[in-house]
Protein 1
Amino acid sequence: MSSAAPPPAPLGLRRGVALADYTTWRVGGPAQWFAEPDCSAQLQALLQWARAEGLAARVIGAGSNLLVSDAGLEGLTICNRHLQGAALDGSSGLIEAHAGEPIPSLARRAARAGLSGLEWAVGIPGTVGGAAVMNAGAQGGCTAEVLESVTVIDPQRPDQPFQISNQELNFAYRHSRLQHEELVVLTARFRLEAGHDPAELSRRTSANLHSRTSTQPYQQPSCGSVFRNPEPHKAGQLIEGLGLKGLNIGGAQVSPIHANFIVNTGGATASEIDHLIAQVQQQVRGAHGISLHTEVKRLGLSSTT
Ligand SMILES: Cc1cc2nc3c(=O)[nH]c(=O)nc-3n(C[C@H](O)[C@H](O)[C@H](O)COP(=O)(O)OP(=O)(O)OC[C@H]3O[C@@H](n4cnc5c(N)ncnc54)[C@H](O)[C@@H]3O)c2cc1C
């Protein structure tokens, strides 16, 4: 990896940080440069520094939808999980949240404030920024239905934040235009339905969480569903139908509990997970002629699946 000039100390930059510690799959090699900013101004300064050094920069949230190469990542990786905080208005239903705010705790706070619309989000272990990028969703709900707008910055002009409305984000199933543009989400504005019974919302939220934890392998490192559902089929059913539950390569295993999850049973590498993904795709294509596309974002891996 190439080396850049020593950075200014206040940016909190570190070298060679193991990204396995920042992904829920617990795999991923070292980041050439790594930082966890404490505020938006520091995030903007980090992007400015990377730009001045000619380094690629990327922002990650909770790393719950990432497959990061064992070789690690060149350039600057910024984890924004410290950029938390949200203001909820119980009468208008308006929520302003920082991108690093965990979406499950936002869902619980909204329920306690009598705001309905995020009950589905309680079991998704990501951040507000990641939810906006991925159009995260579950149990019939999704981000696109409740998000009004995001404030973003372009790493080429980090000092000029601007807003993008819901309509301009081109939301679709697990998709937004943010997946194809190098924009960094700073904050998100949600509009929920006010005036609901907090006790009933909290009950519904807890029931949603329970139904997920009892049918999905939440105790093992994973990235949730690996494949997008090839409508009208369910990826998990296709995989299970071929008897692939339990199939493993090294420490990577098709979960015996939910076939659309690949779990790290201990010591898995990104390469093993990647090969298992390819093997599942090959078998489903061979048996059904259906191409499974990954929902997880691959960073630093050469082939595309
Ligand atoms: C056990 C488990 C269950 C899951 N269940 C679901 C589910 O039911 N539904 C669902 O939709 N997903 C699910 N997921 C996947 C994942 O939690 C979601 O995709 C989540 O929205 C990702 O958020 P994150 O903060 O972890 O993003 P990351 O994984 O860190 O990043 C995902 C992408 O977003 C980008 N990104 C993140 N933050 C920013 C930002 N601030 N600005 C710009 N780009 C950014 C990253 O660069 C990357 O391209 C599950 C994952 C696990 C581990």
Protein 2
Amino acid sequence: MSIIDGVKAKARACVKTIVLPEGDEKRTVRAAAIIRDEGIARPVLLGNTQSIRRAAEENGADISGISGVDPETSPELRRYADALYELRKNKGVTPEEALKLARDPMYYGIMMVKLGDADGLVSGAVHTTGDMLRPALQLIKTKPGIKVVSSSFLMELPNPNIGWNGLLVYSDCVVMPCPTAEELASIAVCAAETARTLCGIEEPRMALLSFSTKGSAKHELVSKVQQAVTIAHELAPELTLDGEMQFDAAIIPEIGASKAKGSPVAGRANVLIFPDLQAGNIGYKITERLGGAKACAVLQGLAKPCNDLSRGCSVDDIVTTVALTAVQAQNA
Ligand SMILES: CC(C)(COP(=O)(O)OP(=O)(O)OC[C@H]1O[C@@H](n2cnc3c(N)ncnc32)[C@H](O)[C@@H]1OP(=O)(O)O)[C@@H](O)C(=O)NCCC(=O)NCCS
């Protein structure tokens, strides 16, 4: 069974409500119908009722039985605006601005999740990553004890001998441009949870990557990764985690054995923590485009799950991301 089939099966076992703020978008209405038919989640489409209906008709999507909510006319609008005002008044948001924000389907959807009226949110077929991330960061906030929101990519490789039966988790490839050592350690702790809950990797073996292996090079960037390893051990002593190490030392057994003798991770890593966003983002795209991997991403560290899509996403990508979000919600 592929990792995604496994995630869908988990999602079906305890069905969650997932809000889709881009409810009148053509791929989103088609995805909502599949999600309902496959029992993956209870989707809620946000947007103007007529626009949602039109998008469904024009794209051959039967959305009967799927909840649709128009923030403009919703009886919950005032409650969400009041709660949003309370959460952001110390940042200078006025009651009028809070009402205006709550009318925006993205903020409305985030408030549904914040107040427990939905279990998770998926957006990004139309909005940029920043448009989706900002309200989530401002209102949902991080889980207790977690410093930063970040992301993991689940990379399904054609070679089953690498990682965990051909699966590697890459983190962070989306959010934190330039993490500090503390933030890098926090990203590692979140990636371990993602590996366990979404991929079923019982023992994540975590490598913190660098251009150096175990002191082979000296540079402040290497020192930052070494510090992150120390902090991550303090934060989560139970984790099998090591670094700093180069990519090949992390995943190729012979190279790991020669460059990092005695390491519990080298040569057998299944979770790779990149030192910054440039390395992580470039790394996942190389693995996808040259390595033939299938990639799907989730955000991690948020108190409740919200996930971003690529604007070039397919209907299947939306279905998959909703399934991942539903499983995160089961574990939130
Ligand atoms: C995440 C991101 C959108 C934040 O945007 P921003 O406009 O710089 O946001 P700000 O710095 O004003 O922060 C907004 C709020 O989010 C919080 N925040 C920002 N980044 C955060 C993070 N990683 N984790 C937790 N909170 C975070 C801030 O503390 C702030 O909270 P506050 O308003 O309650 O004080 C920005 O870091 C970003 O664009 N990252 C790269 C995303 C990207 O383009 N990826 C490309 C690959 S797809």
